């Protein structure tokens, strides 16, 4: 009994708990990224993966004696900033995609060889024709 | 400074080719075409001994130099291209597509000059392939079906030759540890590298079983292009052999024996097939095969007789220069068929210019051929070659009889279509042609006065009974044949002997299969079946890629990649 | 007068980062003039890089002192950020400058809508600045940041046209990229946990073959493989590159992917060098052979011009992977790999630019219907063919020298007694044939008889820039020794 409690306490020590938890979060996030089809869920899954990485990083900071390593904390903060901006950008893209197609899932498959190709360099030559499909997409998404 | 001089030789034609390509309409640029060879000629004549330059930042460190062998080849090549270029200016005057001809001409010229200067494997290979591939444009220039067929066969063989040469060079350079030609030769390429080099260069040199592009390409190409093809470009293979084969103090008996055998066979078979031809340029092409056979024999002898290698290589070089100039002149002769002049002195000059290179090739005393042949046979008298090789000297002498017969055959067929010039003398043609023809007399003079030290020849080498009797024998044989054999208007052996055989074999296989309605390796109605197969494959590929694109697959592969990497790192 | 001492190099490198960032910030802050700022900035950055390279070559004949390390803000390695300039980063900086300048000039003609110009130029300049920083970073975490800057800018550019296909491709690209970045970051964190430093040079001195290092190596390599579109993790590449605007595709295929590969190379030459095993080399080499075959087959299948080019990138990166086992036998072969990547980047960028011109003229890039435009635009077809010749590795092109050197290294492996070396040699030789097949497929209809149609008018930039860049790619072989000598100035590398 005593031995088990000791093991649990040892495992819960920040030096091991955080890396293990981080690795589990990382794996869970990867699983979610693969299995979930809704793009927002996928972005959330990526965020979970990111949290796993930061958790490992914090565990690294807390390891050893004395005060936690400030460098690791600074890195975590920087990483979070990057993750937040990437998430924001990804969400913006997903919103745009939803407006265009009406769904927040990815179009299937490799390059659609028959899909129409828009060419921005030509738009100035027929400036009258606006992007017509966006309004149609909006109706469906609403 | 020497770097600029050396680099200018291939660069001047290259630049001119670019200019003509950009401005095809400029007549003034066209007029410069023959003179693009001038820097090469000037370098051959005036370069101080040991001129070399290394461009360490060009390619993989390009090394250009003029060595004694290279100087002789450079002089021949540049001179011949210059003369043929002058001839081409007049020959192509009314050709609407002449700018295309000139562009290919200049590219091939740049390659030909560059490969002579190149002293490292990469530059040599690049210039060699530039020459080979550009010459395709010259072969197909006329656009006739015959030219396309000749071009196709030429291209197939040229590309095979490129691949062989490249593979051989890579293998040899890797074995040598560096890419300079001297180092490659010093490392004595063996095994595959040697076979590949011999074959790759042999295709260009018209070596026996791979010679059949010559009799197809030469008659198909315009006259000046045939002159440089036969006079200068096929010598590139020879030069490559001299640069790359293990011709050193240790010798190389097996390869030498093989080359002697192939060379002698080519010398006689070329004559045998050549006399059965009817078109003058085809006859000349077979004569080139025969003559290249003699030079191949020379290389083989140099491998067999290490003590005499310096002499033999110099002799082969002399022979190559002599043959290049004479054969170039003879090809231009073929282009003078419509220029039979009216005035009597001009007729005398015409006859002189026609006969001189032919007699020189046959080895008449006091011509360049006499000197070259004697130089080639000189070391054989003293050396005792064992076995069948002991007959080499005699066979070399006998080959001259064949050459005589072949050239008489050429003159005869050529004379049949001789026409009187309608609009006076075409001066540029006359200059180019006459200049080349007279080289048959000037070359021995120049060699005797300022010859290479490896080849101490004297005036006595200009004559000898071993030169005269084959010519007489040839004359006799030709007389007999002329009296006894009726001529035909179609060749008894089709042009491009082996190529025809291969084509016929391929055709008959196809025809037999069709006639017997054999199922064959693939079912009938091939195109439809193939299209279905291709569409099926395409659909399957697309489906596979779609499968890879699924996120489940991406995740799986990502994890698998991690696992695989981890395991291989552990596997230590 | 170039100062002959190396004292100017730190200032030059830091100045390059400052200049490229400054241009990007300026264009972002003043979008109305973004294209003017962009053009001037492109010229200035290119001039700066070329000047820096001249200085570098002039100052650094000794490979052991050639790495210039700059401590930003005066904070030294364990704490501060380090910039690092050596032969490898210099070569890639010059490559980036050449391709980016060509792309900028091309974009002058390609992006002419006023609104779009305002969006395009800042993003593009950020991408360029990110690449410059990526090549100069000498610190693992900083590498992660620059990777993110590059990816985010690249994703935004892919989504630029705003169509459903483009946005969908961009979302896939983004998710894959973040996955790769996070995996990379996890590896960095593990390394940091083990050794307490992030600086690559310090890390290199401390790593040995341990379990943590191995895990970190696996995570970072897999993440970068994803980002570099190495087979079989390449699937995001074709949709993203195929639907991006032409100049963006050129930069993505030419530079961004190369940037990720650069990191793989740098890590495995430095930090992870003690971990390599023959089995690892063989696995990577087999992946390379797979990439060569699969990418070429897909390029032969694809129906759109830009998809063909995108898949050809997948195939060509196979060569870089095949080079890994060669490097285990002959460590000096890495320079050949970089040279190959340089030539490929130049050629691929010009192929994409030429494809963009054709797409603009025809209004689409479906290969089956491009014949008329191909026949009427010999200049662009010539650029396509010239760059294609370099991709095939025919004589007289940069690709020839690169493949020659690779083949020679491969033969060395065979001669060293490795049986699998035969496979590498066959792959290198056979890959050229496959490349010839898909390049011919692209330009074949230009030689058929049929209708000619010039199509939509294109600006002179779009007409001439692909040709210019293709010429540079073809002539790159002439600078072979120069590149290899520059690369030799990389300290620590064999």
Task: Name some characteristics of this structure.
heterotrimer, A: mainly alpha, Helix Hairpins, 72% helix, disordered C terminus, C: 494 residues, mainly alpha, two-stranded antiparallel ribbon, 2 strands, globular
SSE series of chain B? HHHEEHHHHHHHHHHHHHHHHHHH
Alpha-beta content class of chain B: mainly alpha
Q: How many DSSP-defined strands of chain A?
A: 0
Beta content of chain A comes to: under 5%
Radius of gyration of chain A: 23 Å
- Tell me the Rg of chain B in angstroms: 26 Å
Tally of DSSP helical segments of chain B: 22
The pLDDT mean of chain B sits at 86
Assembly context of the chains: heterotrimer
Helix-strand sequence of chain A: HHHHHH
Helix content estimate of chain A = over 70%
Tell me about the biggest sheet of chain A?
none
Largest interface: A-C, 56 and 60 residues
Describe the structure.
The complex is a heterotrimer of chains A (142), B (572) and C (494). Chain A has helices at residues 2-12, 14-35, 39-62, 70-101, 120-123, 133-141. With 142 residues, chain A is an all-alpha fold. In chain A, helix 3 (39-62) runs antiparallel to helix 4 and helix 4 crosses helix 6. In chain A, 32% of the residues are buried. Chain B is mainly alpha-helical and 572 residues long. Chain B has helices at residues 2-22, 27-31, 38-46, 68-91, 98-117, 121-139, 145-176, 181-186, 191-205, 214-220, 223-244, 253-274, 280-304, 309-334, 344-362, 368-382, 392-416, 427-450, 465-484, 497-516, 526-549, 551-571, and strands at 52-55, 62-65. In chain B, a hairpin with a 6-residue loop joins strand 1 (52-55) and strand 2. With 494 residues, chain C is mainly alpha-helical. Chain C has a domain at 280-494. Helix content of chain C is 74%, strand content 2%. Chain C contains 19 helices and two strands. Chain C starts with 7 loop residues before the first helix and ends in a 6-residue tail after the last helix. The mean pLDDT of chain C is 85. Classes of the chains: A mainly alpha (142), B mainly alpha (572), C mainly alpha (494). Chains in contact: A-B, A-C, B-C.
């Amino acid at each position: 009994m005593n031995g088990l409690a000791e093991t649990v306490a040892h495992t819960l020590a920040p030096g091991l708990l955080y890396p293990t938890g981080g690795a589990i979060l990382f794996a869970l996030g990867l699983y979610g990224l693969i299995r979930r089809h809704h793009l927002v869920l996928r972005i959330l899954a990526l965020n979970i993966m990111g949290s796993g990485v930061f958790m490992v990083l914090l565990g690294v900071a807390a390891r050893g004696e004395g005060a936690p390593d400030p460098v690791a904390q600074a890195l975590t903060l920087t990483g979070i900033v990057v993750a937040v901006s990437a998430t924001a950008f990804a969400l913006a893209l997903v919103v745009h995609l939803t407006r265009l197609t009406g769904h927040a899932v990815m179009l299937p498959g490799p390059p659609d060889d028959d899909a129409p190709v828009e060419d921005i360099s030509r738009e100035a030559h027929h400036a009258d024709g606006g992007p017509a499909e966006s309004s149609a997409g909006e109706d469906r998404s609403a | 400074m020497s770097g600029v001089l050396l680099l200018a030789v291939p660069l001047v034609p290259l630049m001119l080719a670019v200019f003509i390509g950009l401005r095809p309409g400029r007549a003034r640029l066209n007029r410069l075409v023959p003179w693009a060879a001038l820097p090469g000629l000037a370098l051959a004549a005036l370069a101080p001994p040991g001129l070399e330059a290394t461009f360490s930042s060009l390619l993989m460190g390009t090394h250009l130099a003029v060595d004694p062998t290279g100087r002789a080849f450079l002089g021949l090549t540049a001179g011949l291209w210059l003369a043929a270029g002058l001839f081409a200016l007049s020959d192509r005057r009314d050709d609407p597509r002449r700018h295309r001809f000139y562009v290919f001409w200049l590219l091939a010229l740049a390659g030909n000059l560059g490969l002579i200067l190149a002293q490292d494997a990469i530059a040599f290979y690049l210039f060699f392939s530039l020459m080979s591939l550009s010459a395709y444009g010259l072969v197909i220039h006329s656009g006739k079906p015959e030219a396309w067929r000749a071009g196709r066969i030429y291209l197939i063989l040229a590309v095979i030759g490129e691949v062989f040469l490249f593979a051989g060079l890579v293998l040899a350079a890797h074995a040598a540890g560096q890419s300079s030609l001297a180092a490659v030769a010093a490392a004595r390429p063996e095994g595959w590298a040697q076979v590949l080099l011999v074959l790759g260069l042999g295709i260009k040199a018209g070596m026996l079983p791979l010679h059949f592009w010559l009799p197809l390409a030469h008659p198909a190409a315009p006259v000046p292009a045939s002159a440089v093809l036969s006079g200068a470009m096929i010598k590139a293979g020879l030069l490559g052999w001299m640069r790359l084969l293990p011709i050193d103090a240790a010798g190389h008996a097996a390869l030498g024996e093989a080359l002697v055998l192939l060379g002698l066979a080519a010398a006689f078979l070329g004559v045998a097939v050549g006399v059965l031809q009817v078109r003058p340029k085809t006859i000349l092409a077979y004569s080139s095969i025969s003559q290249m056979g003699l030079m191949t024999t020379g290389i083989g002898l140099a491998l067999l007789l290490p003590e005499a290698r310096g002499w033999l290589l110099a002799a082969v070089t002399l022979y190559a220069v002599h043959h290049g100039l004479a054969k170039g002149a003879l090809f231009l002769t073929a282009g003078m068929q419509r220029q039979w002049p009216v005035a009597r002195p001009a007729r005398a000059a015409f006859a002189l210019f026609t006969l001189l290179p032919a007699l020189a090739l046959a080895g008449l005393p006091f011509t360049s051929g006499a000197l070259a042949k004697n130089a080639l046979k000189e070391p054989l008298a003293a050396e005792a070659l064992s076995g069948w090789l002991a007959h080499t000297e005699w066979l070399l002498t006998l080959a001259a009889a064949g050459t005589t017969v072949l050239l008489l055959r050429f003159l005869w067929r050529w004379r049949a279509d001789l026409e009187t010039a309608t609009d006076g003398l075409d001066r540029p043609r006359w200059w180019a042609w006459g200049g080349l023809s007279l080289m048959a007399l000037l070359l021995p003079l120049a060699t005797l006065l300022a010859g290479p030290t490896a080849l101490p020849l004297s005036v006595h080498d200009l004559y000898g009974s071993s030169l005269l009797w084959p010519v007489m024998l040839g004359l006799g044989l030709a007389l007999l044949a002329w009296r006894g054999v009726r001529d035909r208007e179609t060749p008894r052996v089709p042009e491009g002997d082996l190529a025809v055989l291969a084509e016929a074999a391929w055709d008959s296989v196809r025809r037999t299969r069709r006639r017997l309605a054999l199922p064959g390796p693939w079912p009938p109605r091939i195109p439809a079946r193939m299209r279905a197969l291709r569409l099926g494959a395409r659909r399957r590929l697309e489906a596979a890629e779609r499968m890879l694109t699924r996120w489940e697959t991406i995740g799986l592969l990502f994890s698998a990649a991690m696992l695989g990497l981890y395991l291989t790192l552990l596997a230590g | 007068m170039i100062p002959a001492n190396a004292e100017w190099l730190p200032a030059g490198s830091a100045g390059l980062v400052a200049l490229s960032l400054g241009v990007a910030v300026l264009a972002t802050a003043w979008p109305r003039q973004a294209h003017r700022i962009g053009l001037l900035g492109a010229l200035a950055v290119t001039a700066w890089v070329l000047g820096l390279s001249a200085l570098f070559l002039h100052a650094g004949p000794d490979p052991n002192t050639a790495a210039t390390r700059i401590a930003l803000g005066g904070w030294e390695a364990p704490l501060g950020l380090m910039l690092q300039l050596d032969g490898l980063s210099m070569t890639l900086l010059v490559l980036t400058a050449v391709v980016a300048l060509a792309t900028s000039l091309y974009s002058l003609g390609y992006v002419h809508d006023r609104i779009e110009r305002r969006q395009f130029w800042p993003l593009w300049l950020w991408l360029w600045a990110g690449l410059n920083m990526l090549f100069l970073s000498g610190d693992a975490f900083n590498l992660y940041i620059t990777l993110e800057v590059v990816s985010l800018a690249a994703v935004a550019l892919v989504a630029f046209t705003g169509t459903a296909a483009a946005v969908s491709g961009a979302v896939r690209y983004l998710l894959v990229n973040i996955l790769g970045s996070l995996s990379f970051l996890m590896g960095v964190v593990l390394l940091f946990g083990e050794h307490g430093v992030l600086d690559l040079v310090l890390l290199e001195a401390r790593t040995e073959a341990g379990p943590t290092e191995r895990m970190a190596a696996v995570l970072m390599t897999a993440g970068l493989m994803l980002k570099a579109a190495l087979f079989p993790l390449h699937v995001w590449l074709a949709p993203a590159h195929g639907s991006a605007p032409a100049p963006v595709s050129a930069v993505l295929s030419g530079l961004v992917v190369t940037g990720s590969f650069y990191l793989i190379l740098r890590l495995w030459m430095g930090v992870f060098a003690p971990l390599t095993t023959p089995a690892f080399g063989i696995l990577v080499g087999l992946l390379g052979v797979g990439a060569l075959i699969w990418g070429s087959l897909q390029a032969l299948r694809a129906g759109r011009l830009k998809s063909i080019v995108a898949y050809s990138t997948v195939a060509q990166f196979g060569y870089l992977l095949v080079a890994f086992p060669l490097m285990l036998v002959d460590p000096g072969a890495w320079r050949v790999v970089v040279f190959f990547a340089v030539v490929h980047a130049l050629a691929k960028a010009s192929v994409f630019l030429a494809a963009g011109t054709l797409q603009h003229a025809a209004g689409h890039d479906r290969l089956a219907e491009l014949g008329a435009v191909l026949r009427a635009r010999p200049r662009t077809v010539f650029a396509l063919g010239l760059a294609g010749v370099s991709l095939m590795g025919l004589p007289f092109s940069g690709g020839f020298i690169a493949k020659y050197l690779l083949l020679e290294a491969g033969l060395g492996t065979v001669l060293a007694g490795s049986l699998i070396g035969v496979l590498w040699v066959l792959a290198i030789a056979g890959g050229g044939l496959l490349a010839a097949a898909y390049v011919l497929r692209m330009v074949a209809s230009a030689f058929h008889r049929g209708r000619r149609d010039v199509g939509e008018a294109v600006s002179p930039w779009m007409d001439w820039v692909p040709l210019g860049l293709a010429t540079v790619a073809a002539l790159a072989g002439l600078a072979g020794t120069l590149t290899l000598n520059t690369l030799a100035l990389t300290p620590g590398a064999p």
